[in-house]
Amino acid sequence: MMKNTLKVVLLTSLLPFAASAEQELTPWYVGGGLGVNNYEPNCDQKTMKVCGEDDPYAWDVFGGYLFNDYFGVELGYRDLGRAEWTDYSNKRNDVGARGMALGLVGFYPFADKWSLSAEAGAMNYLISNKKNYNTEYYSDSGIAPYIGAGIGYNFTDNLKLQAKYRRYENLDDDKYNTLDMESNYWGLELSYRFGVDKPAPAPVVAPVVAAPIDSDNDGVTDDMDKCPDTPSTHKVDAQGCTIYEDAPISSRMEGVYFDNDSAVLKPESYTRLEKGAKYLKDNPHTTAVIEGHASLVGNADYNMDLSERRAQAVVDALVEKYGIDASRLKAVGFGEDNPIMEGTSPEANKQNRRIDAVVSGAEKRPVLK
Fold it and tell me: How far is residue 256's CA from residue 158's CA, in Å, rounded to a whole number?
């Protein structure tokens, strides 16, 4: 038998299901929110004599960038509404805070389209007092730290609605020493992530060739068929004889796992590695190239190095744990170069973080229809 190449592809997927369409979502998003805000302390500042009617309605606009599916940064402008009171000089005070905010955000997806979020950052605020019906104006600025939490729902891969809570500290008027406040905000935010769905390509349908007489149903008429008894499942040449070629055998095997940003095999991965080692032991004439692949999130050079380390971890396990001769194995990293699903959605990332094993042997098989 002539030597040929046999490919056995061991695909490692972090996702238990495949998407029906490839995603091309960017890491950028924008949004806006509306809510209510409560300044603290409420009507017990040393300058407050009589409480007035608050205007608690707050709003914000923002833009963000996702480093990966779980972590990002946001920059935005926020207006926290206003509070009113009458001081001991019988003058009406009208105070509010607004300014730019920069913070880190984290996301934890759960269920189907739901996610939890947490955030922390600082607001460069301007606190202003339109005193005595705007005839006197006082203002001061500073940095107020904040923390927040929320729950979100994705209507689509692009559109998300979140319920948010934020706590601001040290909204102080140090210049005139008249205000020392905190703030609680509750609101709804709608955000849009840029990118579009990429529809899956339509299947290619081979044309049907009509034949007057084809006794063995191989697509070649009897007058041209030099191999009249070929199985109907075999592809044949123009003379009706079976075509032989190197036939890749692909099997999808879930179960080889790495933690995010890690090249250390998780314990549950060894069940699948044991099956791959058994194949190599049963076919001692074969050699294998272990290919590491990474998702499209993050720095390309770093992902190339990470994919190489993951491929090497599989090679080391096959040699050290299962006794495969190291001369039969080679580790290669491809980084982001060969994704099987475009985009940076959770589905695409988990599909693209995988290990492929290309096994070379000597087997020739008929091409099937």
Answer: 31
Q: Which structure tokens are listed for 66?
A: 């996702």
CA distance 245 to 208: 23
- pLDDT-based confidence at residue 90 (cuts at 50, 70, 90): confident
**Residue 17 — pLDDT band, cuts 50, 70, 90?**
very low
Paired sense of beta strands 114-130 and 136-154, if any: antiparallel
Q: For residues 140 and 317, what is the distance between their CA atoms, to the nearest angstrom?
A: 63
Residues 232, 234, 237, 240, CA torsion sign: negative
Contact 154/115 with Cβ under 8 angstroms? yes
CA dihedral 18, 23, 25, 27 (to 10 degrees): 40
Task: Return left, alpha or beta for 219; rule: phi > 0 is left, psi -120 to 50 is alpha, else beta.
Answer: left
pTM of the model: 0.47
**The token pair that represents 144 in the structure block:** 């107020």
* Higher-pLDDT residue of 252, 90: 90
DSSP 327: G
Nearest to 105 by CA among 72, 139, 151, 70: 72
**Alpha helices (H) in the chain, listed in sequence order:** 131-134, 270-282, 300-320, 346-352
If one counts every other C-beta atom within 10 angstroms of the C-beta of residue 259, the result is 10
pLDDT > 80? residue 109: yes
Q: Is 263 exposed, middle or buried (0-12, 13-18, 19+ CB in 10 A)?
A: middle
Position 179 pLDDT exceeds 80 = no
Q: How many CA atoms lie within 13 A of 166 on its CB side?
A: 32
Of 102, 29, 31, 103, nearest in space to 60 by CA: 31
- Residue-wise pLDDT for 217-259, tens only, equals 777 888 888 888 888 888 888 888 888 775 444 444 566 777 7
Token pair 């209507």 is found at 155
Q: How far apart are CA 156 and CA 195, in angstroms?
A: 11
At residue 44, the pLDDT reads 61
Per this entry, what is the length of the chain? Answer: 369
- As given in the structure block, the two tokens for residue 77 are 């402008």
